[in-house]
Amino acid sequence: MLNPGMQRARVPLSSPPYRRLVIKVGSAVLSGKEGRRRLLAIADQVAALRGEGREVVLVSSGAVATGMARLGLTQRPRTMPGKQAAAAVGQPVLMQLWEQAFAWHDLKVAQVLLTAEDLAHRHRYLNARHTLKTLLEWGIVPVINENDTVMVEEIKFGDNDQLSALIASLVAADLLIILSDIEALFDADPRHNPQARPVRYVEKVDAEVLRMAGDDPNQVGTGGMRSKLLAAEKAQAAGIPMLLLPGTRPGVVLQALQGEPVGTFFAAGQRRYSGQKLWLSQLPKPAGEILVDAGAARALREGGASLLPAGIRGVKGSFGVGEAVRCLDPRGNLVGVGLVNYSSAEIERIMGAKTRDLEAILGYKHSDEVIHRDYFALASELAAGGFG
Ligand SMILES: Nc1ncnc2c1ncn2[C@@H]1O[C@H](COP(=O)(O)OP(=O)(O)O)[C@@H](O)[C@H]1O
Ligand SMILES: N[C@@H](CCC(=O)OP(=O)(O)O)C(=O)O
């Protein structure tokens, strides 16, 4: 949903002070001849923001692009192991650049490499949160990237735009800033449509807005504009506004926060959840699937019920206690996602059974419910780019 009256993106004057920021820097900003200069300019701005009493978490892409430069490759490797090898070469070089850039300002950096799996386990997610919180308390600038060398296609976040939105929720940021190589969101892909006009304000990321974006990235990036819109959608669902800015322009973050009209501002949405349920609704990948019967599907969808063993007809995949799984109805439609109190092996033994028989079957009982209602989010409530 656009607001045609609002021509230029301004951080609204009525906005909160934006004390905690997550700033994502795209590969396009950090690569090429100008990459080094832009990295230094971003570090200058982060240092200035820190000086104003704000906290900043950086999400930095660029490991693959930096590795390519270091290895003298002119084309992005096509295979997954090729990209991973390039990232393994590039990541330490990239961190060294951030380390040096921040050292000028007497600031220390910390490298945090995450996989989607890390955030899909509640205890690992909470560990990541504690670590980031501690780093911020110590006055350190965390620099996060996907752990490219160990991730596999099935469990990757998709790209760092998605990761940055998840991190914004994780640290309860006041604002997510995405720095790319483009002035703003345009109403059509500007590479194919020279008449495309910038959109300065987006109230809500809906189908009309998603239609504007191409999903093929620039030469070095990954997700394209579509993935930035999906990140905005995730941030909006968490009640966090997002600002898309041209990271190629020095000083642009400070200008935007002073109210200058630059980039595209995505309003904070109505926060749908907090805590556990927010995390569930944004998870990138499920650990497995539970097939439920029609009665259980109705009870979950309409009655806000917990999932009992009696309503389970099948299990797919192998998962442990506490993992997040998809629940599918008899037609294969997604009912929602939830955290299981039993492993897939246990569910295979107790599916279809009455609650009172669980102890006799297993010899113990963790709980009556396989998924408790407080740990379940309906399909209609999931963020785009999540389980869906
Ligand atoms: N509607 C649109 N508005 C702006 N940019 C778009 C649009 N559709 C596609 N793009 C392209 O998306 C690119 C940015 O995405 P990406 O390559 O993933 O960047 P990054 O490396 O910063 O993550 C821009 O360079 C632009 O060419
Ligand atoms: N982890 C990858 C990032 C890939 C990625 O999402 O890139 P981009 O679209 O430029 O944010 C790297 O460091 O190269």
Automatic annotation (TrEMBL):
Pathway: Amino-acid biosynthesis; L-proline biosynthesis; L-glutamate 5-semialdehyde from L-glutamate: step 1/2. It is found in: Cytoplasm. Signal peptide: none annotated. Catalyzes the transfer of a phosphate group to glutamate to form L-glutamate 5-phosphate. This is Glutamate 5-kinase. One of its GO terms (cellular component) is cytosol. GO terms for molecular function: ATP binding; glutamate 5-kinase activity; RNA binding. The lineage of its organism: Bacteria, Thermotogati, Deinococcota, Deinococci, Thermales. One of its GO terms (biological process) is L-proline biosynthetic process.
